[in-house]
């Protein structure tokens, strides 16, 4: 049964039937291209998500290492502050040793 206003299909073997078949072929080709494009787009979204995740991990790593580097800089500064007085003491000890050597020679 046909719906009101629906045209009957053209008889097989007529030019109209050949045109409908050609249109179906074009439609199927367009659908295939559309599906292929959607699949490619889905793959690009997956790749984009993966790259974004990797980028976010690298940002997290950079922040972590920045904090570590700051802590190490503070430690280096503290060590330098301890070393400077020791170097001064070493110089003074060197001078005293030289004086003692001179006195020892004199004696």
Structural class: mainly alpha
Give Rg in angstroms.
43 Å
Helix count, per DSSP? 1
Question: Considering DSSP H and I runs of 4 or more, what fraction of the residues is helical?
Answer: over 70%
Overall strand count: 0
N- to C-terminal distance: 136 Å
| Major sheet summary line | none
| Quaternary organisation | single chain
User: How does the overall form come out from the CA principal axes?
Assistant: rod-shaped
- Unreliable sequence segments: none
- Mean pLDDT across all amino acids: 88
How many separate structural domains?
1
Classify the beta-strand content into a percent band: under 5%
Q: What sequence of helices (H) and strands (E) makes up the elements?
A: H
Keywords:
107 residues, mainly alpha, 1 helix, 86% helix, ICE1 protein
Written account of the structure:
With 107 residues, the chain is mostly helical. It has one domain (26-106). 86% of the residues lie in helices and 0% in strands. It is rod-shaped.
């Amino acid at each position: 049964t046909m719906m009101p206003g629906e045209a009957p299909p053209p008889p097989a073997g007529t030019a109209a039937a050949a045109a409908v078949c050609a249109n179906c072929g074009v439609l199927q080709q367009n659908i295939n291209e559309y599906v292929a494009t959607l699949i490619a787009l889905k793959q690009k979204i997956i790749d984009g998500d993966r790259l974004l995740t990797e980028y976010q991990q690298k940002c997290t790593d950079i922040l972590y290492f920045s904090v570590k580097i700051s802590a190490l800089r503070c430690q280096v500064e503290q060590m330098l502050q301890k070393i400077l007085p020791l170097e001064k003491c070493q110089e003074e000890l060197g001078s005293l040793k030289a004086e003692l050597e001179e006195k020892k020679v004199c004696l």
